[in-house]
Amino acid sequence: MNREKLNNRLQKIKDKLIDIVQTRDRRIYISCESQNACDVCKFLFEDLTLRFIIATGIDSDNCFEVLYHFANDETGDIVTVKAIIRDRENPSIESITPFIPGAEWIEREIHDILGIEIKNHPNMRRLILHDDWPEGVYPLRKTRPEVNEGTVI
Amino acid sequence: MNKAMNKPVLAVGPFHPLQEEMEYFQLTVDGEIVTDIDVRISYNHRGIEKISETLQFDQVPYLVSRVCGICSASHPLAYINAVEEIAGVTAPERAQYIRVIINELERIHSHLLWVGLGGHFIGYDTVFMWAWKYREPVLDLLEAITGNRNNYGNVCVGGCREDIPDEMIPKILKELDTIEKKTEMLTKAVLDDPVLHARLKGVGILTKEAAVKYAVTGPTARGSGIAIDVRHDDPYAAYGDLDWKVISQPEGDVFAKAVVRLLEIFESIKMIREALKKLPKGPIAVEVKQIPPGEGCGHAEAPRGETFHYVRSDGGNRPIRHKIRAPSYVNVPSFKASCIGQNISDVTLTLASVDPCYSCTERVAVVDSHHNIINDYEALLQMSRDKTARLKKEIGAPELKMEES
Amino acid sequence: MSWKMWSLKKSIWVFHVNTGACNNCDIEIVNCLTPKYDIERFGIKLVGSPRHADALLVTGVVTLQALPRLLEVYRQTAKPCVVFPIGACACDTGIFYNGYHVAGPVDKIIREEDPNAIIAYVPGCPPKPEAMISGVMKALSAI
């Protein structure tokens, strides 16, 4: 699939998106609200057959963001879906693991380190933090800047 | 839950007597067949993404080269790609070529390392010793160029730290000839061996469909017939100017992955030769004054697959978010697709076949609830080796005395 | 010198513990076994169980998840034994000193378990195989 075709196909889901930005050649950023993210990812993965790279959870100024990175290996594009979660108190987002099994680990990791609830995740257990890590402490939140607070010795 | 409790469970990890890092696998087995696999990581979680937020942009490459000791050239390169994208700078051409040379040398030594370990897992310690012996000259070359055998720390934002002096080029070319000859011998010995054909073919098959679903990268994907390679698809550094081809094999088994890795060594040698020949004159770095606000995605092809870095800057001198994805992060979960239905004696090999950056297999306790037999890691390794010996007898290969590890 | 110490110094068998390393030190340790360095000629052998070992080669900064496992391995090792923190991270947490998942340097943790532990450091990032061999030899001649 070439780039023009990709852009045309993206128009199909335009009503679900906030905007499409191309920062430079081969880098496309799509932003959307968190409730639409799952559908957008499904469209990119199943209809456009892009390869899932990874997701990034970010604690932004007044919201949380979950970025889903996809790659189009024929053109070398990286398409990033930015899902904005505006609810800071109880952040949550729909899981994409049911149709992308490769996303299982990263969704568990985002839950561990940022405390974003992943809805309908098939296997939500602790992944990256150690067994005795206190519940409700999320190391990558900006409200927790001291990096070595977890040190026990 | 109760149902799962009744099934025999095989625990693999977290320590390993050979190399590699801690990881804990729990295999549910039915007789000799693996029916489920569960992984517990975290033993190696050092919180690098958070530490990165406390470092300055030019200090981060030294941190990310310590994400993984074997990929210590590709992680910084992926990070640099992301930061240079934000800053809008391009490194001088000479620096681009030097980056290619360091990265390809790294790929050669990493693939040789894997071939050796794979040999060890099936009881071919000769291959292990050979491959690691031929790997040494590569490390010596890297030490001569960058000053360290691993953790080169050779890239910086806007260029490279160490140049390749002209008088060193003939020496590198000469070493490459030796390495090529030795690798050729090793490849022939490995690929023409009927025992290895019998032992590795059809083992741990990862189908193309599963590979797409689990979004695997690198030799794991290329062994399953998906010809993706970041160097080819989104050329960074000087890969766009060089003449080489992407190696892929359709079968998806352990043998295909071994073939991909072995043949890639030759592509890498070819690439280094060409890069040394074309090496342009000029400076090796440009000065980067500040990193403007923005975000960037950088990726690079590490020996194990695609390394992906996402960096966000707010205009200060530290990244406010830095996401690192190592290739094993997507390759390891694909065990679910490739291990289930396998023999226990094939599992070590299948686990090893994706070349996981952190891995497994010490203190393996096979608990068979029917007979109350408790085996350990040595026994599992022995099972793998016995199968090789059995196959050897079946196809009538000459008996070789295998030394105990 | 007690006979236990005397026998410790002969043909030392080592067990390798990775407590959160980047793989570099680990690979250099395995490199020591391969034809170029071949430490078995000194009688040093890598073994698969801490119960057989005279020395522990600990690599990497100790992560919180690895901490109880390291202590367990240390308890299982036959005493007297020597603990070798290999590499900058194991010696003094190195570049990861402020990580939230880091428990601390190896010597501190081992000393808390056993104040009389014999600890010998091999610094470097990663130490070269030659450095490891020389570190082990120097430590053995010192005790």
Question: What key attributes describe this structure?
Answer:
heterotrimer, B: alpha+beta, 2 domains, five-stranded antiparallel beta sheet, three-stranded antiparallel beta sheet, about 15% strand, C: alpha/beta, Rossmann fold, two-stranded antiparallel ribbon, 6 helices
Question: What does it look like?
Answer:
The complex is a heterotrimer of chains A (153), B (405) and C (143). By secondary structure, chain A is of the alpha/beta class. Chain A has a domain at 3-90: Beta Polymerase, domain 2, CATH 3.30.460. Chain A has helices at residues 3-11, 34-47, 104-114; strands at residues 17-24, 27-33, 51-59, 64-72, 77-85, 92-94, 117-119. Chain A is globular. Chain A starts with a helix and ends in a 34-residue tail after the last strand. With 405 residues, chain B is α+β, with helices and mostly antiparallel strands. Chain B has two domains: 2-44 and 331-394, no CATH class; 48-329, Cytochrome-c3 Hydrogenase, chain B. Chain B is built from 16 helices and ten strands. The radius of gyration of chain B is 22 Å and the shape is globular. With 143 residues, chain C is α/β, with parallel strands linked by helices. Chain C has a single domain, classed as Rossmann fold, CATH 3.40.50.12280. Chain C contains six helices and seven strands; from the N terminus they run αβαβββαβαβαβα. The longest helix of chain C is centred in the C-terminal third of the chain and has 14 residues, at 129-142. Chain C is globular, with a radius of gyration of 14 Å. The termini of chain C are close together. Classes of the chains: A alpha/beta (153), B alpha+beta (405), C alpha/beta (143). Chain B binds chain C through residues 14-22, 42-48, 50-51, 54, 62-63, 66-70, 72, 113, 128-129, 132-133, 136, 148-151, 357-358, 362, 377-378, and chain C through 15-31, 34-36, 46-49, 60-61, 63, 65-66, 69, 73, 95-96, 98-102, 125-126, 128.
